[in-house]
Design brief:
By secondary structure, the chain is α+β, with helices and mostly antiparallel strands. Helices cover about 10% and strands about 20% of the residues. The protein has helices at about 15-20, 55-60; strands at about 1-5, 35-45, 50, 70-75, 80. The strands form two sheets. The chain has a three-stranded antiparallel beta sheet. The longest helix has 7 residues, at about 55-60.
């Protein structure tokens, strides 16, 4: 099992859509999703299939803001998954907004 080494919830977006604008995982002390690209394959303006996997060139093409061409494949650097536990909780609707301090909340 593998995982992204970032705290990114990839449910409603795609890797291509979030990689191009360099928008996920960014911070002064963290890397972006684009920094995790090991290889990117795309169709350039001449209609040729091109692959970039050189680390120096990847800095330019992995976060290209959509100007690279049509991206057909992205290979990401992943970390081994060490722990994952999702336990959905269904809270009472009336408690979806926390009550004020000292407010008596009935148990049922």
């Amino acid at each position: 099992w593998w995982t992204l080494p970032l705290n990114v919830i990839m449910v409603e977006i795609t890797f291509g859509g979030s990689n191009g604008p360099i928008c996920h995982g960014s911070g002064k002390r963290t890397t972006t999703l684009s920094d995790l690209v090991a290889s990117i394959e795309f169709v350039n303006a001449k209609g040729e299939l091109q692959t970039v996997d050189d680390p120096v060139q990847l800095k330019s093409v992995s976060g290209c803001f959509g100007m690279l061409g049509i991206v057909t494949s992205i290979t990401m650097k992943l970390d081994p998954l060490t722990f994952a536990c999702m336990i959905p909780q269904k809270k009472r609707v009336e408690l979806s907004i926390p009550p004020p301090k000292g407010f008596d909340v009935p148990s049922k």
